Amino acid sequence: MQDLIELLISATAGGCIYALFALSYLVVLRPTGVINFAVGDWGTVAAFGGFLALSEAALPWPIGMAFVIIAAFGLGWLTERIAVRPLVERGAPVLAPILALLGMLVIFREAVSVAFGPDPRPIPQPFGYGRIEFGLLAASYQSIFIIGITASVFVGAWYFFERTLAGRSFEAVALDRRAAALMGINLRRVTSFAFGAGASIAALAALLLTPNTSAHYLMGIPLAIQGFTALVIGGVGRTEGALVGGIILALAEQLTMRYVPIAPGLVQGVPLLLLIIFLLVRPTGLLAARGASA
Amino acid sequence: MKSLLQAALVIAILSAIGFLLGPYHTDIYRKLLLWIALALSYNFLFGVAGQVAFSHFTFYGVGAYAIVILVTQAGLPLPLAATAGIVLCVLLALAVAIPATRLDGFYLALATLALAQLFIVFLNEGGELTGGSGGLTSYRLPDVGGITLSGPRYTVVIVLLVTFTWILLARIDQSWFGRACRAVRDNPQAAAAMGIDVARTRVIAYALTSALAGLAGMVYAFVDNTVSPPIFGLENAFLLLFMVIIGGSGSQIGSVIGATVLYLLPFVLSPLIGHHHALVFGVVMLLVILAQPRGLTGLWAARPWRSR
Asked: Which domains are assigned to chain A?
């Protein structure tokens, strides 16, 4: 029983990572309509930033983390300036920035591979390898740290999108760019901020993940797949959807790995399977957008 | 009649080149032709039908593995194995595309990305069936009608594949189906209003091009007489996308140019930058999208010195 609870907690922590990547997609998708497959590789770049700050420079965790997240905001801002804004302002079809971001994905990945080589790089654990056992409850410190941080990020994101004027302006831009601009919303600023925030969230997720897995230049694509699958499961209409989808995906993966007798690598098939099931059965995701559902 | 003669002439010239080359250049030439065949069918999917998919190289791998497994392990005769391989590609394509194209947006891109990732895992974990990470080796092409196809004769087979792909896709592109695909690409709502079944058009285009990729994979399987997981990795799916974009998406000659340039560029670049071509390709692809969305063929069409 304790064993099962520990599994569920570590799966939830894994799901939180997927949820953060899903949120990173969502923050960009809401105001721009652009699906940014480079989220995973924002994470890769940030993970190596974490390696430099936390392993090489041995900064204390909170400082190193703040440093990487702020730098990631700059990276996201730069990504938008290079690969998105020129196309949007020219009135190119929405496919063009998506392809340009795929180009950025490859550039990020290859730049990391040139700079750091193909070997995985370690990131220290913020709280060491300790774990707590309390009655039936058992979990590693890292799992609890991940769940706590993710919960606060989602509360913040929910508050931002639902309760603040700036967050509502994201929604307005998503609904109708022209009308939003006429209402005095600065489209450029909203788009820049969306990309910056998206990159910061991806960076946070990578920093939470890599103490367990190490930083590797190929880590981006699987995270991009899992994050987007989480988004499809939860539904793009609601901020909480990303969190629900991420946790469902991670639970499905962990329970498959534990109880289904297949080669461990084939667990990578779970996202594809869930994706296809959800696209067939419930294409709006579990949580339908407010107002859209009957 | 004229186009038939043209095709015969092209086949003759491309095959003749195959007979002139030494072993090293034959290898490069054959792989170049295979890349061209793949770029042509991917161009139809991406450039004409407007679908972003990362599974094209996966179907190339499915075709290659399928024919090897069916011929060597199941002992099927070659034509039967080839047919079964194509059927397998089409079924797999339908399983992915029918759910993923029901909605607008980029669900197909995601589903195919996941499929491509999963295929490599499956190859590595496949045990006896796929030979694991070492892949399948030391098999050979059975004689076809009493003829041993090897050396330059096999190059002719590849030339036939490329010309078949070119002619088939050019025909389809000019047919009602090609126009339907372009209409769906440019404006799905308008296409639907004109009575085009948008989802069905997308699914058929995806299944057709995936089957063509599978066919190319079957031909590839007997080029090196070895298939292994790293050959069918995701990087190549990106490379294919870059080839079509850089050459000029929607244009068959553009795909040939894009495939040729990107396939041969590493041979020129490696003395300068080692194995980091992908970085260069990423930068070039980004520049093309930003500066000349119609790629190299667009550059040619817009050449400033053209007499008006």
From this structure: 2-281 (1.10.3470)
